[in-house]
Every structure is written in structure tokens, then in C-alpha cells.
Specification:
This protein is an alpha/beta fold. Helices cover 46% and strands 11% of the residues. The chain has an eight-stranded parallel sheet. A two-stranded antiparallel sheet has the order 1-2. Strands 7-9 form a two-stranded antiparallel ribbon. Strand 11 (297-301), helix 11 (320-332) and strand 12 (341-343) form a beta-alpha-beta unit. The structure holds D-xylulose (XUL) and cobalt (II) ion.
Length: 442
């Protein structure tokens, strides 16, 4: 019911169904079977898939070299607010047909920035009422909300880390409202991504002051959330660069250090994005594993970069090897809820027809479903775990156990080795065997 005259935005596309691997239909799931049970729970709960409002409903296809390319018939005519309300209809038609349970937004994706803060607040309230009504009828929920603190020129030097205290205050007012709207919509989380919280040049930057301010900002956000009764999970989303040359939320290790240093570790977990991990020089599995082992695994922004392009291309993930690794780590750490798998991904500029939005999401969901099935098989088989345990077998022996228990010292270990003369020889790491083993499941 999105276009003038009440017609559909995606005519001819029915609800996408699971048809199994042999189907010839491209607008169907081959692997994502929402109700299928894997490791004791339905696939839908393993993923809690979310659509990103910004890429899917605000992406225009423009790039630094060229104009918008996307054909979006519903984007024509009316005021900015009318267009925003029409987009809500389109978004829910899309998400209902896709069969996805969640979505995520920035405040300014869903509602236009007004001429003043109060007008922006009003616009957001108006659109939020429409979102609430559609959530009610569709059962689709808000995974997390966030605020866009990077597009407007006032944020040229950052928001919480701006050199201008007024800008910090404006950002605080914007985030206060974004948290309130997220809460009103039953949002299950709230994300901080440091859009411009970083620097281009250290000569003009007081780094300590800026990072102190970022912590102050997050504490105020957490305090306000508690005050209004918002109990959703806060997330910090690492990204090493883009748009600044150095972002303070560089990677999971940097973010977790920041959270602990400033006493935020009880309130904030990580929202980890694949393309940001690779920009930081890490594999996604590294970032997930690091956050998981530290107890900070929160949610995922699912996408992928291109090895031949060095920037944040935000492509839809289709690589089964990648999704297998992601799902192995998620299963290991007990799943993703109350987070989810949010497709922070955009169709290519060349894929400009509305139907491409379906192909992109279906491919991503199927890639994750295959990854889940393969990961569950690897775990059920147990060979990977057995080989890993064997590699660390000496740590289960008497000496290893005593060291891990903290009952040894440098002196006692020196005595042990003086008596023994040398350490026992190491065994092969068998990297190729491990890699070949994984391929036997793919
Ligand atoms: C930017 C990015 C953001 C965050 C939310 O690279 O990933 O869309 O996910 O602000
Ligand atoms: Co993201």
C-alpha cells in the first residue's frame, strides 16, 4: 500500500518461502527455514535477522564519483515528512514479504531533520507513531535504534568528541530523544557508532580530552536510559577508520579497554561488523572471538568487504566460509540474543531495481543458514574440538593445571626446568590438517 493510489511497492513478489536447496526459484530460501530446529532452537532465534533502514530504504546508489541510481518509485513527491511516512509503508511491506523479524534505524533515516531541534523531535515522533502501528500489525520488532551524529555539518569535528561543547550538548539532546523513541518502540538495544569520533590530525587534537568526553557522553546515555526505564542492551560498534583517519572505536580490543577504563563495562557490549573488522586488519572471527572471550559479545552487523577494494563497501555476505566461522563462534558463546544479525549492507550501485533488495537479503539469510548448519555439524562431529584439545593437552597435565590454577611461580618453574634440563619437544601445529578438516564439512 505504499504508492499513491494504494498499490504495492513490490508488486508480483509474494511472501518469500523456504523451498529447499533443489528449488529453481530464485526468490525463495534454499537453506533458511525459520522453524527448523538446529541445536535445540529454531533458526529464526539463532539469527534474529534485522533489516537496516538506512541502506535498504535510504540508500540512493550515489558514490563519490556519481549520482543516485536506485529506482524507488515511492520516493516521488510530497514533503519530506510525507515521504518518510510513505517509506514506512514500503519498509514494512518489504520486511513482511521477506519474513524478517527485526529492523534497525538511525533517527534521521526514519524521519527528516527539521529546521530546529524541536522540529526534528516532532518529525521523529510522527514517524515513530507510524512505525509503532506497523510493528503492532506485523509483529516485526526493533532490534536497536541509534542516532545519526555524523551527517549534519554541525558534526564536522565529531559529536561527543567535538572540540565544541555546544555540539556535544546538541548530540546529547539528539541521543536522549533517540533513546526515548527506541524505548517507546520496544527496541531491544541501542548502538553507539562513532561516526566522526576520531581525528584527522593529532596536531589539532586533544585526544585525552576527547576520549574522556566520549565516556562522559555514554555515561549520561546510560543514566538517562535507566531513568526512563529502558532496559535494552547498549552496544559500541568498532570501526578503525572512515570517515576519520583514526576512529576511537578502532576494534573490539580498543573498545573493551575504553569501556573498562571508564567503568562502562556493565552497560555496554559490542556490535561487531564484518567489514569494520577487516578494515582493522582482523578477520571477523577474531573480533567475535575476542569479544566473546571477554564477555562482550553483543550483536552483529552482517556484511562483507571486497578484498580488492580497501574501503567499507558494505556488501551482502554470501561467503559460506565466512558465515560458518561466524556461526561457530556464536554457538560457542551461547548465541546472539538479545542482539541479532543486522544486515548493515547495501545493494551495489549497479543493482538498482527494487527486486534486488530481495535477492540481496535472501542471499545473506541463506548464507547464514548454511553457515549455521555447517557449524552445528562441525560441533556435533567433535573432531575440530578433539584436535584442539590435543594441541593443548599438556595444559591438562599436572604442570599445566598447576600453572593455570595459579599455584606455580617463576622460582618453582625454574626449579622444575633445572631438574628436567629442557622442555618436551613441541608437536606440529597441523594448520593444513585443520583447514582441510573444515573443508570436509563445506
Ligand atoms: C557505519 C555503520 C553504521 C552503524 C550504525 O559504517 O556501520 O551504519 O552500524 O551507526
Ligand atoms: Co554497522
Amino acid at each position: 500500500m505504499a504508492l499513491p493510489g494504494g498499490s504495492e511497492a513490490f508488486p508480483g513478489i509474494e511472501r518469500i518461502r523456504y523451498e529447499g536447496p533443489a528449488t529453481k526459484t530464485m526468490l525463495a530460501f534454499r537453506h533458511y527455514d525459520a522453524d527448523a530446529i538446529v541445536e535445540g532452537q529454531p533458526m529464526r532465534d539463532h539469527f534474529r535477522f534485522a533489516v537496516s533502514y538506512w541502506h535498504t530504504f535510504r540508500g540512493t546508489g550515489s558514490d563519490p564519483f556519481g549520482a543516485p541510481t536506485m529506482i524507488r518509485p515511492w520516493e516521488i513527491g510530497g514533503t519530506d515528512l510525507e515521504a518518510a511516512l510513505r517509506r514506512v509503508e514500503v519498509a514494512f511491506e518489504f520486511m513482511e514479504k521477506l519474513g524478517v523479524g527485526f529492523y534497525c534505524f538511525h533517527d534521521r533515516d526514519v524521519a527528516p531533520e527539521g529546521h530546529s531541534l524541536s522540529e526534528s523531535h516532532r518529525n521523529l515522533d510522527t514517524v515513530a507513531s507510524a512505525l509503532a502501528a506497523h510493528q503492532q500489525t506485523s509483529g516485526i520488532r526493533l532490534l536497536w535504534g541509534t542516532a545519526n551524529l555524523f551527517s549534519h555539518p554541525r558534526y564536522v569535528h565529531g559529536a561527543a568528541t567535538s572540540c565544541n561543547a555546544d555540539v556535544f550538548a546538541f548530540a546529547a539532546a539528539q541521543v536522549k530523544k533517540a533513546i526515548e523513541v527506541t524505548h517507546a518502540l520496544g527496541g531491544q538495544g541501542y548502538v553507539f557508532w562513532g561516526g566522526r569520533e576520531g581525528y584527522q590530525c593529532l596536531w589539532n587534537t586533544d585526544m585525552k580530552r576527547e576520549i574522556d568526553h566520549l565516556a562522559r557522553f555514554m555515561h549520561m546515555a546510560v543514566d538517562h536510559a535507566r531513568k526512563i526505564g529502558f532496559e535494552g542492551q547498549f552496544y559500541f560498534e568498532p570501526k578503525p577508520r572512515e570517515p576519520t583517519k583514526h576512529q576511537y572505536d578502532y576494534d573490539c580490543a580498543a573498545c573493551i579497554n575504553f569501556l573498562r577504563a571508564y567503568g562502562l563495562e556493565k552497560h555496554v557490549k559490542m556490535n561487531i561488523e564484518t567489514n569494520h573488522a577487516t578494515l582493522a586488519g582482523h578477520e571477523m572471527q577474531h573480533e567475535l572471538e575476542y569479544a566473546g572471550m571477554q564477555g562482550f559479545l553483543g550483536s552483529i552487523d552482517a556484511n562483507t568487504g571486497d578484498p580488492l577494494l580497501g574501503w567499507d563497501t558494505d556488501q551482502f555476505p554470501t561467503d559460506i566460509y565466512l558465515t560458518t566461522r561466524i556461526m561457530l563462534t556464536l554457538l560457542k558463546y551461547g548465541g546472539i540474543a538479545p542482539g541479532g544479525v543486522n544486515f548493515d549492507a547495501k545493494v551495489r550501485r549497479e543493482s538498482f531495481e527494487p527486486v534486488d533488495l530481495f535477492h540481496a537479503h535472501i542471499g545473506g539469510m541463506d548464507a547464514f543458514a548454511r553457515g549455521l548448519k555447517i557449524a552445528a555439524q562441525i560441533r556435533a562431529d567433535g573432531t575440530l574440538q578433539r584436535l584442539l584439545d590435543e594441541r593443548y593437552a599438556s595444559w591438562s597435565g599436572p604442570l599445566g593445571r598447576r600453572i593455570e590454577a595459579g599455584s606455580e611461580s617463576f622460582e618453582s618453574l625454574e626449579r622444575e626446568m633445572l631438574a628436567k634440563g629442557d622442555s618436551t619437544p613441541c608437536s606440529s601445529g597441523r594448520q593444513e590438517l585443520f583447514e582441510n578438516l573444515i573443508n570436509t564439512y563445506l
